[in-house]
Design brief:
The structure is a single chain. The longest helix is centred in the N-terminal third of the chain and has 53 residues. Strand 14 and strand 15 form a beta hairpin. The protein is built from eleven helices and 20 strands.
Length: 459
Amino acid sequence: MMLSVPPIRHSLASSPRDFTQMAHKRPFCGGGGAGNDDSENPNKRLNVYPSRFYRTFRCAKIERNLLASASFAAEIESKLRKIVREEADLSVESFFSSYLGQVESSGSRRYRLEFQRNLPEFIFTDNKVVSESDSDMEVVLKDNYAREERVATGPLSSLKVKIFVVHSDLKPEDWTLNEFNSKVVKNREGKKPLITGELVVSLQGGVAAIPEIKFNDNSSWCRSKKFRLGAQPVLDSHKTSIQEAISNPFQVKDHRGESYRKLYPPKLDSEVWRLEQIAKDGRNHQLLMDFEISKVRDLLNLYFTDKQQLIKLLSGCSNKKLESIIEHAMTCPSDGKKYMYSRLSQGTTVLYFDSGYRIVGIEIDQHSYHAMDELSKDQKERVESMKQDAYKNRKQWNLVAETTSKNQKERVESVKQDAYKNRKQWNLVAETTSNDQALTPYLSFDSEWMNEFGPWSYT
């Protein structure tokens, strides 16, 4: 606001006459009347004439102050606007960061990526990363709102996905977007990239194979000593609705130790030194080779047929080491072959063995069982006695034809669907048999109608 300054009408230079007249009217010293009061306050005389000047200059000072205040206010306003704008931007960024990182957990995101297979416990550098079954790893997109079915159609079915390496301490149950990003493993300074290869893949029909990736550095330097693989959509716009995938944890070791590595799980045809506690070309390895035990299959065969001989052969091993060897060998999967040994005494009893001489099925009086725990005490004694006879008479074993042929699968499926439609005809299996239980073929179900028990029997 601008103040108008009144013109100065009286001044010492322009009005000397007025000054003289005023001097006669108000003498500096005089007697009588009103002059007596002025003589009592000699300073009052000095304040009389400059009063108009004082008011004028005071108005000018106020005007200058106001002008200075307006300039100061404008400067403050500019700075305040800048501060408010910066704080508002930070607040908005913090809000959306919190929304993306905390609200969008796996439980609230509709879709999720998932690795179809597990990785082996150990992976070696400079080798192609494959699943524990030696096949390519696959990542698939599933819909949590549609019974976790694969998203086979639509724009998301051709989504681009990037592969990461994450620390193994990321909780596999649930995590937020921020938690996933914070667990991504960075390359070590002065080292090659941790992982290389085709790190970006495109889904086709909601699934994609990971064809060629490999590690260039081991995992021994991180706190947990283990990694996980992670998969995340490439586009940021998809990250709020699609949960990332993480694999099972695994260790990465230097490829120089690959020639001596153990297998988890081993195979029946694996070299016996692939088992724990058996070093390649070591003492135990040489003892087993001298006894013509070169494969895991050979060791299991000796263990089941003559356990004491195996203990004697590895007499230098403690009981704990021997248990470790056997437990590791027992983890190997079957090779798909099944051998049958039967004996017609006190009813029909059939035992089924795999190539490692492990019992994989029991049939007593047309009842099928999976394990010894399902048998009664009398049945256990009968099976144990028959098992020892079977090991002594291996030449009498008969190779059972594969029960997974197309015709048998179709036949079982047909009977299963018919059984679901006629649940009132189901009979509870008792110790004794009945005519109704001698169906051809027969199927067994658990109380939830979900699991089928085998092996299937055909008469």
